[in-house]
Amino acid sequence: MASEIVVGIDFGTTHSGASWAVNGGTKHVRLINDWPNPNSSVANAEKVPTIISYQNERPHNWGYNVELTEQSFKWFKILLDPTHTINKNVEPVVTSSKLLGALHKTAEEIAADYFRLLWQYIKDDIQRVKGDNWKSIYTLKVVLTVPAIWSATAKERTLNAAHAAGLPETLTLVTEPEAAALAVLKDRNEEDESLEAGRYDHLLHCNKLTAAASQETPSPSAMLEGEQS
C-alpha cells in the first residue's frame, strides 16, 4: 500500500501558506518557507502574497515576483463570495473587480490560476525532499482552509477553482476556526494521551492557522450540502 502525504493549504486574502507531512512515523511537518522572492537573498517567509499578474491575458507573475508597477489581482479571494460585506468598500477588491472586466475573466478563473502556480510549487517542494519518483510512492490528501463565514457559493467556487488548477478531487475544505480547534486538541493530546482528538488523525500547521486531515473527512459535496441545509 502506498504511503500518504498530507498537504495543508492556507488560502488567505493577502497571503497564503502551505505545509505537508508523510502520514506515518514521526509525521514531521515541513512548513514551506522558501517561496520565490527576487528581493531577498535568503528566502525564509512562511507565507507568500496572494497576488497574481497577467500579460497578454495569461498568468505572468505571482507571489513575491509581482512587481509594484504591474497591474495585479489582490484580495481576489473576497470576490469568490458575492455576499461578502467588503466587496465594494476596499480598494484592492474594487481594483481587482475592474481588472476582471478588462481581462474578461471571473474571480473563479483568477483563483484557479493562482492555485495552479501555488500547487505546482508545493509539488516541486515535495519532489525536492522526497525525490523524482515520489508520485509512485505516495498518495496525496489535500486540505484547504476557508473562512467560517464563507457562504455555500463561495465554498463551491473555491472547490471549483482548486479542481480546475489540478488539485485532487478528494480535496477537503476545513474552516479556519475548526482547524485551529483541532490543533489545540492535537497539542493537548500530545501532553495527555487520554484526550482523543476525535476523528482527525493528523494536523498540519500552516503558519498560525491549521489545516486538518482526516481519514473519515466528509466529502466536499457533503460539506456543501450541509452548509445549504
Beta fraction: 25-35%
Helix content: 25-40%
> What shape does the CA trace take?
globular
The number of distinct β-strands equals: 11
Radius of gyration: 18 Å
Could you tell me how far the N terminus lies from the C terminus, measured between alpha carbons in angstroms?
38 Å
List unreliable stretches of 5+ residues.
191-229
Mean pLDDT: 80
By secondary-structure content and strand pairing, the structural class works out as alpha+beta
How can the largest sheet be summarized? 6 strands, mixed
**What is the element string, with H for helices and E for strands?**
EEEEEEEHHHEHEHEEH
How many helices does DSSP assign? 6
Task: Provide a short characterization of the protein structure.
The strands form three sheets. Strands 1, 2, 3, 4, 8 and 9 form a six-stranded mixed β-sheet that branches. The chain has a three-stranded antiparallel β-sheet with strand order 6-5-7. Residues 191-229 have low confidence and may be disordered. The chain has 229 residues and is α+β, with helices and mostly antiparallel strands.
